[in-house]
Write a structure and sequence with these properties.
With 303 residues, this protein is an all-alpha fold. The protein contains 13 helices and no strands.
Amino acid sequence: MADGVERGFKLSTMITAYPQIFPAWWEAFIVLAEQGGDLPRILRLLHRYIAERTSLRLQFFSALMTPALTAAAGTIAICVFLFGVLPRIVEYVVSMGALLPGPLGWYINHERLLLTALTLLMTLLFLAALIVAQYFKTSRGRLFLDQCRLRVPAFGILIRKYELLRIVHGLKIVVGQGASIPMGLETLARSMANLCVRQGLLDAAVDLDHGVPIPEALAAIPVLSPAGAQIVSVGWASGQLELMLDRYFERLTLEIIQDARDSVGIILHITLMVVALFVTFVLVAFYATLFIGLLQVSGFPKS
């Protein structure tokens, strides 16, 4: 990149040559910075945004590790018990002449059938995942997937605020270069990966060009709350939009951190409940009947 810039190429042109390193939305902001002559400031803002986004992701995924490891450990332990420990115990008890009633006896008699059904189910799920993945590559599939992302339980609000964080930061950069709000929204739309958010930004820009008031026009953006639209409107009217967006950006960052902790806490509790219920089922359904079999071997009356 340095060699290209020294040979006279623009920085925005060199960035497009490395899409695996620089996201597509960088080009739009770098072009505005080159036109406005304030490239160092824009690069500092982009660096700050990337640093804060990386910090948010690290905090989220580090917090998500606890429920993920809990679920994985519970699943492994249950599989080892069902397909490793339990068959040996049952083989020993049956060899001593016991008849295993209830779910345990049914499980032992149909163990191969269950394994075959489980293999078939996993194969069908894999094929279904391939079909769904192909559908999501189409425009309608991507739109449907982006809509679901914004509405998914527990994480939907987190995803919406994360998209809003990008909009607030990008709008602050664009407005700082002297661009109007409609132009800033159009620039942001080209940088958004979520099709719902992108279309909302374009619709808001068109409404603003037609004289629609800012709060009403910004209502077309699915991730922007009425309070956020009012902040933009008041900031634009008072001439302090960049300052208000900067404060809004800081507030959103804190809210995302708190929402991430809450979402991870919900997932952790659900994971622990599922593992506990499954373990309880195993204890009641299998160990109780296994105990009956041991009583039969010892000659204890069935009654």
